[in-house]
Structures are given as structure tokens and as C-alpha cells.
Design a protein that fits this description.
110 residues; 5 strands; alpha+beta
């Protein structure tokens, strides 16, 4: 697909998908990694064990996030978003988002 998605189409792509690519940097190296995510309340929420991406984002919170949706070679959409990493530290908030993510992932076909 050539063209620009409108806001509603962007919201749909982000809401209907589960896997995206997170781009982050420590100021020297760029790191792009696939992550499972949910999109809710205008936020992209991903769960991760502490590792390279968390280390990079704590050091340099500017991130890029990309999601593709492809039916065939002529019918596809891609969303690229930029923002800042925010770590959820409140335990109740963490549990709320994790529960929402688990419920969404349970709908996936195995």
C-alpha cells in the first residue's frame, strides 16, 4: 500500500496486532528487537525482562516503534511511532497492564 494512514487506520493497526519492533539506542549503538505489546489508552505497552533494551531505554529514553500488517504483497500497512520510554514502577499499574496483555494474548491462535 502506498499512501499515508489516517489516525483511525493507525489506531486500528496498533490495536489489532500483537508483535512490533522496538528501536532504541544507548547513544552509541542502535538496537531493534521484536516485542509483544498491547495498545491501550494511547500507549504502547510491552513487557520485558531486564536486559539490553531496558538498559538502553533507561540511558536514552527516545524510542521508535514499528508494526506491520500484511495480507499479501499488494495489501499491507505499516505504522511507525516515536516516543519516550516510561517504566511502569507502580505494582498495581504493572499488574493491571500485565493482566490486560495476558487477556489479549490468550485470544491468539496456538
Amino acid at each position: 500500500m502506498l499512501g499515508i494512514l489516517n489516525e483511525s487506520e493507525i489506531e486500528t493497526v496498533l490495536s489489532q496486532n500483537y508483535l512490533g519492533r522496538l528501536g532504541c539506542t544507548d547513544g552509541e549503538s542502535i538496537y531493534v528487537v521484536p516485542v509483544h505489546y498491547i495498545y491501550a489508552d494511547g500507549y504502547i505497552i510491552a513487557h520485558s525482562a531486564e536486559g539490553k533494551k531496558i538498559h538502553y531505554m533507561r540511558k536514552s529514553p527516545g524510542v521508535c516503534f514499528e508494526v506491520d500488517e500484511m495480507e499479501d504483497m499488494m495489501n499491507w500497512r505499516s505504522v511507525i511511532a516515536w516516543g519516550n520510554y516510561e517504566e511502569i514502577t507502580d505494582e498495581l499499574d504493572k499488574q493491571k497492564w500485565l493482566d490486560l496483555m495476558v487477556r489479549k494474548m490468550m485470544k491468539l491462535k496456538v
